[in-house]
Amino acid sequence: MTFDGEGDNGDITGIYCYDKNNQQIRAGKLEEALCQLGEAIIDQHEDMDFNGNGCFGEIKLDVESGKIDIEINYRYVEHHRDYRDVKVEDYLKEKTVAPDAQQ
Description:
By secondary structure, the chain is α+β, with helices and mostly antiparallel strands. It is 19% helix and 30% strand.
């Protein structure tokens, strides 16, 4: 399953099923149940917070082993503050032409 969201919105964006030979198969009637399972997993893991910049990822369910792997990719905005001391006169300097150069 794939998921994606930000702000107040987050959804399961895809359901993909594979057989034991890693060949993709149709989810069929299981699709709705798998979607509900994915939503329950997201709800249970509060760190998968869609608020703010959100996150996206995959939920992999191995039926044979009963193992669930969750990959979460968090979005964030990085800010860097920089201060510089400059003199106004460095920006206001005018090019002056020597009087004898004017003709």
